[in-house]
Specification:
Layout lengths: L2 H7 L10 H13 L3 E4 L5 E4 L41 E2 L4 E2 L3 E4 L5 E3 L4 E10 L2 E11 L4 E6 L1 E3 L6 E2 L4 E5 L13 E8 L2 E3 L18
Length: 214
């Protein structure tokens, strides 16, 4: 029995070996594995290009909404004739501690809401002195209340304000503190009724803040 007959019985199919340049091409083609080879009915070699894997579109992650903001965009007040502006700083020769944080301001510049919330109170910073005001915001979702002092309000009681939105204009403290205080807005933060350090909640100074009154 011929070799071709044995091959047929075993279910294998053999092709006559190509000669010359055709043999070289065929061998390299099969060894490369880059494309699928097939033989047409008339004996011609045909190829099917390999398909490139589909490119997946990048997943778009929706950014979380901003819910806190620096009220003036400036740094904290440093040491001056009346003390320092960080939370817990000494007051009255150590008799008490600073209950908030003081963000440097320029009189007349826009002061922005530190949090998103409802305007719960608008009042006076000091008893018997109606020159200085405050605005207090409350966020029921987080249990956070923020009071901003030394700001002439431009919002109304009961209004809902987004973080970073204008709530008033910074006031000049020179008349009450004539020995040379750094102008600032005083920010007090309470979380579920307990005082908290505002710098643990609010962002620091903005790098793009030019200090211009707006």
């Amino acid at each position: 029995m011929s070799a071709s007959s044995h091959a047929g019985r075993r279910g294998r199919v053999t092709f006559p070996a190509p000669r010359g340049a055709a043999a070289t091409f065929f061998t390299a083609f099969v060894l490369s594995g880059g494309i699928t080879a097939a033989v047409a009915a008339d004996g011609a070699l045909t190829t099917t290009p390999r398909q490139s894997p589909a490119v997946k579109s990048p997943v778009t992650v929706e950014e979380a909404p901003v819910n806190v903001a620096n009220p003036t965009g400036h740094d904290l007040r440093g040491e001056d004739a009346y003390g320092a502006g960080f939370f817990g700083a000494s007051r009255a020769a150590g008799a008490r501690r600073h209950r908030g944080a003081d963000y440097i301001s320029e009189p007349g510049e826009i002061v922005r809401a530190p949090i998103t919330g409802v305007v719960e109170r608008i009042g006076f910073a000091y008893r018997g002195d109606e020159r200085y005001r405050y605005v207090e915001l409350a966020d029921a979702a987080t249990g956070r209340d923020v009071r901003v002092l030394y700001v002439g309000p431009i919002v109304e009681l009961g209004a809902t304000v987004e973080a970073g939105a204008p709530i008033g204009r910074a006031q000049d403290l020179g008349a009450r503190y004539p020995r040379g205080i750094t102008n600032h807005v005083h920010v007090e933060v309470r979380e579920n009724g307990a005082l908290a350090d505002p710098t643990n909640v609010l962002p620091g100074a903005r790098q793009d803040h030019g200090g211009a009154v707006t």
